[in-house]
Amino acid sequence: MRKRVAVLMGGWSAEREVSLVSGHECSAALKTAGYGVTEIDVGRDIAEVLARAKPDVCFNALHGRGGEDGCIQGLLEILEIPYTHSGVLASALAMDKPAAKRQFAGAGILCADGKVVNRDEVLRGHVMPPPYVVKPINEGSSVGVTIVTNGGVPRFHNEGWHYGEMVLVEKYIPGRELTVGVMGDRALAVTELRPHQGFYDYAAKYTAGRTDHLIPAPLPEKVYAEALRVARLAHDTLGCRGVSRADFRYDDAKGESGGLYLLEVNTQPGMTKLSLVPEQAAHVGIEFPELVTWMVENARCDG
Question: Of 13, 19, 141, 257, which is the active-site residue?
Answer without folding.
Answer: 141
